# Entry
Amino acid sequence: MLLAPLVMWWNINVKLLRPVLLAVVELSLLLAVLVQPKAQLTSFTAPAGSCTAGAMRDGINSAGHDVVTKVWQFGCEGSWAYVWADVAAGPHSIGVTNVMRWRADLAMWLSVDRVTVCRPEVLPAAIYRKGCFSN
# Structure
């Protein structure tokens, strides 16, 4: 006999708590998305004369896994750049698009992970548009 009121109390309270628990979970997920770490935009710029096809080629080649055969187009703004180039792939070449960042400590451009930086709030508009929407 004592069990029936306990079960009824449990059912009522669980039904009342369900929307509250759902709201807590949804709020937690929303906060997790909002506070994700973002790539930071720095205010320094690459030195004058550093935005060249050769500098872009050297930056891509420095990673050690691609060899640039031709730079088709590139552009720089601040500490960011984009490069459209061909890299060797056996007897052929393949077109690639890279987003580069000036590394003052190394005095060179280095490729960055586009998944991390290709956000309009991180990159200058031209670099975002030309570096983030192709292969």
Q: What stands out?
A: Residues 53-131 form one domain. The chain has two domains: 1-36, 53-131. Residues 37-42 have pLDDT under 50 and may be disordered.
